[in-house]
From TrEMBL:
This is Uncharacterized protein. Pfam families: WD40. SUPFAM superfamilies: WD40 repeat-like. Keywords: WD repeat. The keyword rRNA processing does not apply. WD repeats lie at residues 312-353. Signal peptide: none annotated. Residues 23-60 are annotated as: Disordered.
């Protein structure tokens, strides 16, 4: 992944984000404007914007609370301008244009998840513009996300947020384990996050790893993957090993993938690859790992040895997302060439489907636990939900404005959460799975 960090937020705000589309617009936030100074000039609007419920959305209110009726541009016109002016970040020039001929057109109009609520009191943030795995749901009502230096828990049932971890100051483990960095860290910049069951793992910009059990006080384990200058933790995946021990896998910019055993609190495996690793996904049977990074080709490797089983050829730029379908036969990879490719392990000579985004890179991919749906997130504005069981031929396009910090289905598949980073309209979007309870009609 790209090394620049300090200017990442400005890069998204000024060049990579929404352009200055109308000099006469009454409102400009980070998403709708073009500079940090716009916040001060138009910040008074922030206090006037409230959450949006599903009932209000059905009555015609914009789901993000954007007052289009007060602006000198319509939503439709702004969307058109946004599509025309948005600049996709590419490491390999023209990769987005080159991928179009292979794309499989999907029929739009699917309705799999319906809007439930937009919560503006919960504002997710992004550290690096290429890393978008900062939102994790642990139930249909509970979601965790990064907000500046804090990991926040939001309960959509109680409409209450709680800070569960703050890394703005000094953090150190309160438990003693061999290999744990007892001195801890100061002002960790969290680049990636993973939460499963009760374990939270935060990865930092300098290779930091901070592990906390949500049902215990304090930090359980701290480690630094490397002291290399190129140390960014790009992704973390938590999983249960075949022996039922809890492990997590960290992907780093130093070309390494490290596996940690959280029963023993120690490093168990360390694999090295020819290029920085941006994301990894372990197969449901724990035998194979999808490795993607700063190379157009990904690789499928043996989880025990790290040896290549098969290259994954087809993408035209660097990849930052991957995910396995629960059946263990297919998986997906997301790339800066604006595509998501679907692969079948029974024939890896080419991908079985190529799905196209609207604006830019595919930076996050999630499957529902029942395998029915797949969500792929672009850097901004669009999350696409595909009907997997029907061959990715139909999709629901979720359309809004703002950078996407992460997407997450709840383990029971009932909720879909989307983190939106925007200086004025930053929020957490919640969607609920559409169910056809036709048998209830007989009661009325």
């Amino acid at each position: 992944m790209s090394q620049h960090q300090g200017g990442d937020i400005d890069y998204m705000a000024d060049d990579y984000e929404m352009a200055d589309v109308d000099d006469d617009m009454d409102f400009r936030g980070r998403g709708m404007g073009d500079s940090e100074s716009d916040d001060d000039e138009y910040g008074h609007l922030d206090s006037k914007i409230t959450d949006t419920s599903s009932a209000q959305a059905r009555r015609g209110k914009d789901i993000q609370g954007i007052p289009w009726e007060r602006l000198s541009i319509s939503r439709e016109k702004y969307r058109q301008t946004r599509l025309e002016q948005y600049k996709n970040y590419e490491n390999i020039p023209q990769s987005g244009e080159g991928s179009e001929k292979e794309c499989k057109p999907a029929k739009k109009g699917g309705m799999y998840y319906e809007f439930r609520r937009n919560t503006r009191s919960v504002k997710s943030t992004i550290l690096h513009f290429q890393l978008r795995n900062l939102v994790w749901a642990t139930s249909k009502h509970d979601v965790y996300l990064m907000s500046h230096f804090s990991v926040i828990h939001w309960s959509s049932l109680a409409c209450h947020k709680t800070e569960v971890l703050n890394v703005s100051g000094h953090v150190a483990p309160c438990e003693k384990h061999p290999g744990s960095l007892l001195e801890g860290f100061t002002q960790t910049q969290v680049s990636t996050l993973a939460i499963k069951d009760n374990l939270l793992v935060a990865g930092g910009f300098q290779g930091e790893l901070i592990c906390k059990y949500l049902d215990r006080p304090g930090i359980s384990f701290c480690s630094r993957t490397t002291y290399d200058d190129n140390a960014i933790t790009n992704a973390v995946e938590i999983y249960d090993s075949p022996s039922c021990a809890v492990h997590f896998m960290a992907s780093n910019n130093d070309c390494g993938v490290r596996d940690f055993d959280m029963e023993k609190f120690q490093l168990s495996k360390h694999f090295r690859f020819p290029w920085p690793v941006n994301h990894t996904s372990l197969s449901p049977d724990s035998k194979l790992i999808v490795i993607v990074g700063d190379n157009p080709d990904g690789i499928l490797v043996d989880s025990q040895t790290g040896k290549t089983v098969m290259p994954l050829c087809g993408h035209l730029d660097f990849s930052f997302a991957s995910a396995w379908h629960p059946d263990g036969r297919t998986f997906a990879t997301g790339n800066q060439d604006k595509t998501c490719r679907i692969w079948d392990i029974r024939n890896l000579s080419k991908s079985v489907a190529v799905l196209k985004g609207n604006l830019g890179a595919i930076r996050s991919i999630r499957f529902t636990s029942d395998g029915q749906f797949m969500a792929m997130a672009e850097p901004a504005d669009f999350v696409h939900v595909y009907d997997v069981k029907n061959g990715y031929e139909k999709e629901q396009e979720i359309d809004f404005f703002g950078e996407i910090s992460g997407v997450s289905f709840s383990p029971d598949t009932e909720s879909l959460f989307i983190g939106v980073w925007d200086r004025t309209y930053g929020s957490l979007l919640q969607y609920g799975r559409c169910r056809n309870y036709s048998y209830l009609d007989s009661l009325f």
